[in-house]
Design brief:
Strands 4, 5, 6, 7, 9, 10 and 11 form a 7-stranded mixed sheet that branches. By secondary structure, this protein is of the alpha+beta class. The protein contains 25 helices and 16 strands. It starts with a helix and ends with a helix.
């Protein structure tokens, strides 16, 4: 009897000792994963794991290391581990109460690989109770990776590289000025003044306009006459008016001589204080600061003149250097240079492109429609004007549109050698770097791209690559490309994404694929089917992608029928 009692007690003690050494299995119910399913962001798969050790689970001498592992066909990725300890363990890890249990949070980031789209997230455990290792079975806590952001590699093909603009202007406004100077208190035009260079250039311009009525057009002639601000106001008024009238008579005489007609706009200024102030400020007169102070202190012409005349030495210098320059009339021819018409530019390119200016050649490329025609114009520009970066930049844009990144980059490097700070070139080099997956280099280039027409668009694509979806959508607002729609999808703005995709100019397979994703996220089964069918018909490789894309997990039967 006693022997059996001791035997029973021994078994009980052994069982009790053994149970103290073990840690039980944990359930998936003890864990939540955010997001579920996982999602790729900026080439990585972040996961936040919230776990719970149940009451009376963590033995007081236990140490448990938890490691997230993302398993997929052909491999697995290991996340950051976290270690937890019981109440009687001397260590620096998070302590979990045996009686109460405890909660914890772990964050892990996995480098994305395409096979992760079909994957499972497990937690593996390494545990000891005292010095004895114990086994805790691994637990599956999550599944799959939504890899929509990875479509950027494909949507970049429809991005718009920056175009270096031409400076062609068909109508260019021109001015030709001449000055007639008058002696003090006189309004007659002296022969010596009519022999001046400015008057000769004035007459020459009139004759050139007359001779080339196709390339030049006379708008009008302005006459502004002045008197210096010394002397009585009524005298200065008469002088300025007479100088205006005599100048107008002279201009009419020259128009008649050249058999030309023009509107003549006249005005006069009795006392030219503005001109006086400007000449004084530009002069080397010793007391010019005093003079300028007088002009600012006194507004009445008589008071100004009196104060300045009181400075006798200064006034003498003004009378010799400044005032004679103000007794004048300014004649201005306003005319236009008229460039070739579009048809004339196109015809000249065919007959002899060397007679076209650089701006005309660059502009001409905008008049033709096909990429091959545009390329011919830009190639001609590089031959005729080899030191201008713009043609090389625009050839890069054409190469990029064809998917030839190597040629595009070669052209851009040539353009950069000609103008290293060109905003269009740096913006396009940023796009090339991004297409290669080099976000850091893309950011370096785009920092020098401000001012290019596609700057915000390429910046938006970079923001997608960095996982900044809200900023990306803002940068790409108003742009109708696959990337713009992708940013809106990632920002969960499906209505805007649908509108953008409907307005993509050169819709391709990925335009249809993104439409299918929008349909999936808005639970439109018919839209998923029709758009995926369109995408696969344009690019058969998308059938394989659709089969693993978790965007379509709720449409399994539809996918199966499409990918067979």
């Amino acid at each position: 009897m006693r022997k059996n009692f001791y035997l029973a007690m021994t078994v009980v003690s052994a069982l009790a000792f053994t149970s103290c050494k073990k840690l039980g299995a944990l359930s998936a119910d003890n864990f939540t994963v955010t997001p579920t399913p996982l999602e790729s962001v900026a080439g990585q798969v972040p996961a936040t794991i919230n776990g719970q050790f149940p009451e009376k689970y963590m033995k007081k001498k236990a140490v448990v290391t938890v490691t997230p592992v993302l398993k997929y066909e052909g491999g697995e990725a290991t996340g950051a581990s976290a270690t937890f300890q019981g109440e009687k363990v001397d260590g620096n890890n998070q302590t979990i109460s045996y009686k109460m249990g405890g909660n914890y949070t772990m964050k892990s980031i996995f480098d994305f690989v395409p096979a992760m789209q079909k994957s499972d997230l497990y937690l593996k455990f390494e545990a000891k109770v005292g010095k004895k290792s114990v086994t805790i079975p691994e637990v599956k806590i999550g599944y799959g990776v939504v890899a929509t952001s990875e479509l950027l590699k494909n949507t970049l093909a429809s991005a718009n590289p920056a175009i270096a603009p031409d400076g062609f202007q068909r109508i260019i406004k021109q001015r030709q000025e001449a000055t007639i100077k008058f002696l003090i208190q006189q309004a007659n035009i002296r022969n010596s003044e009519l022999s001046s260079t400015s008057i000769k250039d004035f007459i020459k311009t009139l004759k050139e306009i007359k001779a080339d009525q196709k390339g030049k057009a006379l708008n009008d002639i302005e006459i502004s006459a002045y008197a210096s601000p010394d002397g009585a106001l009524d005298l200065n008024t008469r002088l300025a008016e007479n100088r205006q009238n005599n100048s107008e008579k002279y201009v009419n005489k020259e128009l008649k001589a050249n058999k030309m007609e023009s509107d003549i706009k006249t005005k006069y200024t009795a006392e030219d204080w503005d001109g006086f102030q400007e000449l004084v400020s530009q002069s080397n007169i010793q007391d010019k600061d005093v003079i300028l102070r007088v002009l600012s202190m006194y507004k009445e012409p008589e008071e100004r003149e009196a104060q300045i005349k009181n400075m006798s030495a200064v006034f003498q210098e003004l009378a010799e250097t400044v005032l004679p320059e103000l007794r004048r009339a300014r004649l201005t021819i306003n005319y236009e240079l008229i460039g070739r018409s579009d048809d004339e530019i196109l015809a000249q390119f065919k007959s002899d492109a060397s007679k076209l200016s650089n701006e005309e050649v660059l502009y001409g490329a905008t008049l033709v429609s096909t990429p091959a025609e545009k390329e011919a114009w830009y190639q001609k520009a590089t031959q005729l004007y080899a030191n201008d970066y713009r043609a090389y930049n625009n050839l890069a844009q054409l190469a990029y549109a064809k998917g030839d990144l190597s040629t595009a980059e070669s052209y851009l490097n040539k353009a950069k050698s000609l103008k290293a700070d060109a905003s269009e070139v740096n913006t396009n080099l940023a796009l090339i770097a991004l297409a290669k997956g080099d976000v850091s280099t893309a950011e370096t280039y785009i920092a020098k791209g401000s001012g290019a027409d596609s700057f915000k668009e390429i910046m938006g694509n970079i923001q997608i690559a960095k996982g900044n979806y809200q900023q990306a959508a803002s940068n790409l607002a108003g742009v109708n490309t696959n990337s713009a729609a992708l940013a809106q999808i990632l920002n969960k703005d499906y209505a805007s994404a649908k509108t953008t995709l409907n307005n993509v100019k050169n819709a391709d397979a990925y335009t249809s694929y993104l439409k299918a994703i929008v349909a999936a996220r808005t639970n439109d089964a018919a839209g998923v089917s029709s758009n995926l069918s369109a995408a696969i018909s344009k690019d058969a490789s998308l059938a394989k992608r659709a089969a693993t894309d978790l965007e379509f997990a709720n449409f399994a039967s539809t996918i199966e029928s499409l990918v067979k």
